[in-house]
Amino acid sequence: MPFKTVTSKLAAQLDRDLMGPEIGFTLEQLMELAGFSVAQAVLKEYPLAASTKTQVLVLAGPGNNGGDGLVCARHLKLFGFHPVVYYPKPNSKTPFFSRLVNQLKFFNIPVLNVDENWTQFLDSDSTVCVVDALFGFSFKPPVREPFGSILQQLHKVQDRLPIVSVDVPTGWDVDEGPVEPNSIIPKVLVSLTVPKPCASKIDSLETQHYVGGRFVPAEFAHKYKFEPFPYENADQVVKLSPN
Amino acid sequence: MPFKTVTSKLAAQLDRDLMGPEIGFTLEQLMELAGFSVAQAVLKEYPLAASTKTQVLVLAGPGNNGGDGLVCARHLKLFGFHPVVYYPKPNSKTPFFSRLVNQLKFFNIPVLNVDENWTQFLDSDSTVCVVDALFGFSFKPPVREPFGSILQQLHKVQDRLPIVSVDVPTGWDVDEGPVEPNSIIPKVLVSLTVPKPCASKIDSLETQHYVGGRFVPAEFAHKYKFEPFPYENADQVVKLSPN
Asked: What is the pLDDT of residues B213-223, one digit of tens each?
């Protein structure tokens, strides 16, 4: 399915519009729906009935992409998975993020800090997949530590342990795609609201491509020159490719 | 399916727990998930493919039950329905409610004020159902105007136009059920988090009973002496009866 994309610059404008005074969405609302949609994509791609494995490693970055990951982990637990969250650089600017962490503790979901041994969960015998919620469309290179080391570890295991990237695979150029020689190649990409230009690089990579974040009307999509996606029923994600 | 219920008093305590400092849910998060679950119940009960009708009348009260209705209307629009909202007494205490109204305007969903003619939408030729999001578990009688007149109108049309009540049918005693002679009888009840005692009265009324608001872990349910509900996949509602 061909799809329109919006550049990182336009995506930032789109987010400001959605949360601006006229439309009035709150970060809490959009993050809840976005994180839920990522969890639903994981469930569709890795149905619990198809495997005895239930563990999911969620890597959460310091920004809004990380917040989507924190929400995703909670919904995964409600679906029957056993998520473990690695959150090396907690967001200290927005108080809501510490609430998201409290919610994870309420669900008995382990949240590892920077010094804890997260690589023990890179075990394909027990882990279904790794959710890459490190950085999103506002990421600018270079990758700083500890994220560079995390990406190196992911690159080593990605052939046996699938990576599910949220909106933009971490380390990719949002508009250009995988420009570094050691870029990670996710098995699943969940674009949020509308794919970013880098998503057009994945058709040749056998990556399963979903779009989630079902919260804009057709007229608004048209303003940003894309068509609404063909969501079915109450689904919060729709698979774009392969069909 | 037999189910445990929690009294209005315990339900209030449960909500305070969920939004307290320890667990840290925000009203925005819980309302988004609750409203979404009601919309999903409407879609399951009245699939769009089964009818040419798409209009849904949402009656939103001044409190949190009304907020769930405002969120529900937005998701109904995203699903393909054409909701119309009657919101006679806007919530003036919590600024988030005016944001919810802005979001409806963004979706081109009509929001009628107290003086507008909402009864024109009580037309079973074009309206699929009426969502009763007027009052929830914290309602205390008596019903004041304009809500008494609204309930009278609903009572008149309920045999030809199904009512979907959110958490508690408006006018019912939360713990005792339909105590007034002219109580409305919904065709669908969507209990939120856990049914309130009045829900045990509906088995004899041929009301379809769903539970939604999928946001508590098993341990928390046990604290309130109910069992987690058997949600499937990523569903945000589960049908309790009839099976």
From this structure: 999 999 999 99
**B contact test, residue of A14, A19, A25, A98 with most B CBs within 10 A:** A25
**CB distance A5 to A189 below 8 Å:** no
CB contact under 8 A, A103 and B25: yes
pTM of the entire predicted model: 0.97
Q: Identify the bridge partners of residue B68 per DSSP, sorted by sequence position.
A: none
Residues of B annotated in the binding site for K(+), as ranges? 65, 132, 170
Q: ipTM score here? A: 0.97
Helical residues (DSSP H) of B93-180, grouped into ranges: 96-106, 147-157
Burial of residue B176, with CB atoms counted within 10 A of its CB: 0-12 exposed, 13-18 middle, 19 or more buried: exposed
> How much is the pLDDT for A39?
98
Contact B184, B159 (CB under 8 A): no
- The tokens for A138 are 């506002």
Q: How far is CA A28 from each of CA A31, A228, B211, rounded to the nearest angstrom?
A: 5, 23, 23
In sequence order, what are the beta bridge partners of A238? A211
Looking from the CA of A243 toward its CB, the CA atoms found within 13 Å total 4
The domains located in chain A, with CATH, are: 8-114+131-240 (3.40.50.10260)
